[in-house]
Amino acid sequence: MENILFALAYLERWLGEIMENPKCIEQAVDFIVKNLSDEDVNFINNQSVSKIEVVIDGKFREIVDSSSIHMSYGRFLRNKWNLWGDCELKRDAIENYGIAHADDISGLILDWVFAKVKNQVFDPQVVCERFHKHWANFGMTSLQAGGIK
Questions:
Q1: How far apart are the first and last CA of the chain?
Q2: Do residues 45 and 118 lie in contact, with contact meaning Cβ atoms separated by under 8 Å?
Q3: 140 Cβ contact list (under 8 Å, min separation 6)
Q4: How far apart are CA 16 and CA 60, in angstroms?
Q5: Helix (H, G, I), strand (E, B) or coil at 47
Q6: Is the pLDDT assigned to residue 48 strictly greater than 90?
Q7: Contact 122, 29 (CB under 8 A)
Q8: Domain ranges for the chain
Q9: Apex CA 96: angle with CA 90 and CA 101, to 5°?
Q10: Phi/psi-derived region of residue 60, left when phi > 0, alpha when psi is between -120 and 50, beta in every other case
Q11: Which residues touch 36 (CB under 8 Å, ≥6 apart)?
Q12: Percent of the chain with pLDDT over 90
């Protein structure tokens, strides 16, 4: 995690100068992957794969777990890209993935980054299904959790 924290200043410069506001999730993922340092790639490659409790087509799906950086780099992305407000990136998440909560959006981006670095097949709908089930436990949809009525 130290590597990621030290990389924040470096990435903030890149995010500020090159990509102020990505227009879609895939653009955000590609930008982050392209600008990761060797240390960040090593950090990601040393993270484990965890099973999630989402059953699709009758079986559990495995996803890469980026939760170890949710409160550091994830928070940085949520704030830098205004995922708590209205932006094109959030609108893409709403329209194409059915999620609106900033934590879910940054989680989707980071899980996708981790999978890409690890050269693993990634299905964003599997990750989003995890978010849908989470919010259903609280009696709401993923969109309602993000303030969409």
A1: 36
A2: yes
A3: none
A4: 39
A5: coil
A6: no
A7: no
A8: 2-145
A9: 40
A10: beta
A11: 7, 44, 113, 117
A12: 40
Q: What is the spatial distance between Cα 13 and Cα 93, in angstroms, rounded to a whole number? A: 25
User: Does the pLDDT at position 56 exceed 90?
Assistant: no
pLDDT at position 5, please?
45
**Among candidates 20, 24, 29, 19, which has minimal Cα distance to 91?**
24
Q: Tell me how crowded residue 1 is: count the other CB atoms within 10 A of its CB.
A: 12
Helix extents (H) in 18-139 = 25-34, 38-45, 75-80, 88-97, 102-117, 124-136
Rounded-to-integer distance, Cα 123 and Cα 105, Å = 14
Q: Which helix (H) or strand (E) holds 49?
A: strand 49-56
Q: Which two tokens stand for residue 96?
A: 């194409």
- Residue 69: name the closest of 121, 6, 132 by CA: 6
